[in-house]
Amino acid sequence: DHVPLLVRGLRFILFIPRCSLVRPHLITYVFIPLFLLILEHAPKRVWMLVPLAVLWVNVHGLEYPVMYLIVGAYVLEDLVHRLRGAEAPRPWRLACAALIMGTVFLTPHGARLPQLVFTPLTYAASVIQEYQPVKPVDFTWMKLVPTFQTAFNLIMYLAGFAGFVALLRRQLRLSHLVLLAGGILVATKGSRFMYEGALLALPVLRATAPLWAMLPARASP
Predict the structure, then answer these.
(1) How far apart are CA 141 and CA 163, in angstroms?
(2) How far is CA 58 from CA 61, 64, 114, in A?
(3) Closest by alpha carbon to 76, among 93, 63, 62, 61?
(4) Nearest alpha-carbon partner for 189 in 63, 50, 47, 36
(5) What's the pLDDT tens digit per position in 105-123?
(6) Distance, CA of 179 to CA of 128 (rounded, Å)
(7) Which of 81, 141, 172, 201 is geometrically suited to a Cys-Cys bond with 167, CB 3.0 to 4.6 A?
């Protein structure tokens, strides 16, 4: 496994406090990597995401925009490849993506669920700290003590650096760029959403893992 041990440790620090709470967000923290795994490494099995999407929106429906972002990033990349003639058309994958996005209506809320996401959080942010918008200065915090904010910032700094180097080498995938940018945007909505932002950075970190091979190797004893 080429993923740096530092990133693993930071993710451990970041998620341990959140995973101690038995709430619907736990399924989101499982389904984000699961969706990324299938879309990234097993695109021929994208049909499996349709029933998983039904389960996701029924357990933690308000997270459907994150699901849309993940699926949309790969659909956009697929369409760009087709326009460039680099990939043969695969209409069944687009059909599966449409079905996945349509699962948002397969909950007891019906057509009302998509509207709930746009409910202003003004009152919630006034009484719940994790819903307060994150200030730009918060992303610059660096403390010797491994706090939640420090762990998140380091993960995103590493992802940004890896993405920048991959871009210079023309190796940065469009889907990874969209996911990283979307993760940063999601994280600005409140500390509650930084976990999703860190998970959305996984593809660019994993794809650019060979960058860490450029570090000097430790001499053999």
Answers:
(1) 21
(2) 5, 10, 12
(3) 93
(4) 63
(5) 998 888 888 887 777 766 5
(6) 27
(7) 172
